[in-house]
Amino acid sequence: MIEDKVSFRRKQVKKLLQEGYKQKEIAQKLGSSLSTVEKDIRVIQRGE
Fold it and tell me: What's this model's pTM, rounded to 2 decimal places?
């Protein structure tokens, strides 16, 4: 399911943030665009 993939990616983003990676580094590491990572971070910060 697409939603499962999104949830998994957001968990990865959260973990990498906690490890001290910067947004651009996370995007590169996950093969995502910076805007996608920024959106994921906004959702994580809202607690969704």
Answer: 0.85
- Structural domain boundaries in the chain: 2-46
Measured in residues, the chain has a length of 48
Cα–Cα dist 26/41, whole Å: 11
- pLDDT, one tens digit per residue, over 32-43 is 999 999 999 999
Kindly give, in sequence order, each residue whose CB lies less than 8 Å from that of residue 13, ignoring residues fewer than 6 positions away. Answer: 26, 30, 37, 40, 41, 44
- Residue 43: is it exposed, middle or buried by C-beta count within 10 angstroms (0-12/13-18/19+)? middle
